[in-house]
Specification:
The protein contains seven helices and no strands. By secondary structure, the chain is an all-alpha fold. The chain has helices spanning 3-17, 20-40, 46-69, 73-89, 96-110, 118-129, 135-149. α2 crosses α3 and α3 (46-69) packs antiparallel against α4 (73-89). The chain folds into two domains: 3-89, Hypothetical Protein Yqey, Chain: A, domain1, CATH 1.10.1510; 96-149, Arc Repressor Mutant, subunit A (Orthogonal Bundle), CATH 1.10.10.410. Helices cover 79% and strands 0% of the residues.
Length: 150
């Protein structure tokens, strides 16, 4: 089953359940996926799909923060509902121990010795962590691990 077929199936289920907020969120996901496919001129791979979802989730987190600061609880709640639906399509986030293990493995595979080798380690971690950890958190953890290995 392709990504778009899965999204179409989810839309049908949301329609049957009369769950308007879920339906709207899934339609947003489908529109983003279609736009990305048009931009890339090919169907999305699983990694590209997760990248789109990660971007959407990050945007929702930022919107929620801004709406709460602005006192717009109603809009923040709407964004939280969308975020919940988007997160349901993302793979389970990595635990701290799993992330530490992947970082240690990538450091040993690349032979990284100092923070100068951070790019190599990040490149090695890109595929196994796609959609499962925020890039900012990952880079901070890699930087601290490489700093302690010096």
């Amino acid at each position: 089953m392709t990504i778009l077929e899965k999204l179409d199936q989810e839309i049908k289920e949301a329609l049957k359940a009369r769950d308007q907020s879920r339906l709207d969120a899934i339609r947003l996901i489908k529109a983003s996926v279609k736009n990305k496919e048009i931009e890339l001129i090919h169907p999305l791979s699983e990694a590209e799909f997760f990248a789109v979802l990660s971007t959407m989730a990050k945007q929702r987190h930022e919107s929620i923060d801004q709406f709460k600061k602005g006192g717009r609880v109603d809009l923040a709640e709407k964004e939280e509902k969308e975020l919940a639906v988007i997160s349901s399509f993302l793979p389970q986030p990595l635990s701290d121990s799993e992330l530490d293990h992947l970082i240690a493995e990538a450091i040993s595979q690349t032979g990284a010795k100092s923070p100068k080798d951070m790019g190599l380690v990040m490149k090695a971690l890109k595929e196994p962590t796609m959609g499962r950890v925020d890039g900012k958190i990952l880079s901070e953890r890699v930087r601290s691990k490489l700093a302690t290995t010096v």
